Amino acid sequence: MQQVDDIDRRLLRLLQDDATLSTADLAERAGLPAASCWRRIERMEREGIILGRRVEIDPKALGYAVEVSLRITLDKTQGNAFDVFISEARKIPQVNEIQTFLGRVDVRLNILAWDMAHYQEIYRNQILALPHIADIEALMLVANLKNSESLPL
To answer: At what angle do helices 23-30 and 34-46 cross, to 10 degrees?
Structure first.
């Protein structure tokens, strides 16, 4: 694996700002020949530095007005509690994020719902049916003040 140099970082910053840039546009903005730019991007993709490019969609634009973060502590008396819980949680379409932690909280699920009635339906019928739950704490999102997946490069 090759080291990431200043030119690679410049390319990564540009891609973080606009992942739709063509190689030619990227090369021009980075001050590189297009072929050199293409080789660097290809290498960073091959080495797993660039994992992919994606489109960001505003959930509110699609009617998801409620976002709730559930902090869950699992009953870990079963050896496979994490694996079984996560496998089942992945099946719930409104769960858009799953994170695991060390500490009192084991798992965080992020839930998107159209409204509070929809959230209650998801919570009662799907979340509470998940296996190995010992405790749940719900945090409703009021405002998202910073949401950046960009890395400081």
So the answer is: 110
Helix, strand, coil % in the chain, rounded to nearest 5? 40, 20, 40
Comparing CA positions, the residue from 30, 147, 153 lying closest to residue 97 is 147
Total residues belonging to the chain = 153
Is residue 106 within 8 A of residue 76, CB to CB? The reply is yes
Enter the DSSP assignment of 127: I
pLDDT tens-digit profile of 65-79? 999 999 999 998 988
Q: What is the pLDDT of residue 51?
A: 94
- C-alpha 64/C-alpha 55 separation (Å) is 17
Mean pLDDT on 49-53: 92
With the CA atoms of 125, 127, 131 and 135 taken in that order, what torsion angle do they form, in degrees rounded to the nearest 10?
Answer: -130
Tell me the pLDDT tens digit for each residue of 85-125.
Answer: 999 999 999 999 999 999 999 999 999 999 999 999 999 99
Choose which CATH entry (3.40.309.10, 3.40.50.300, 3.30.70.920, 3.40.1190.20) describes domain 59-140. Answer: 3.30.70.920
CB 68 within 8 A of CB 97: no
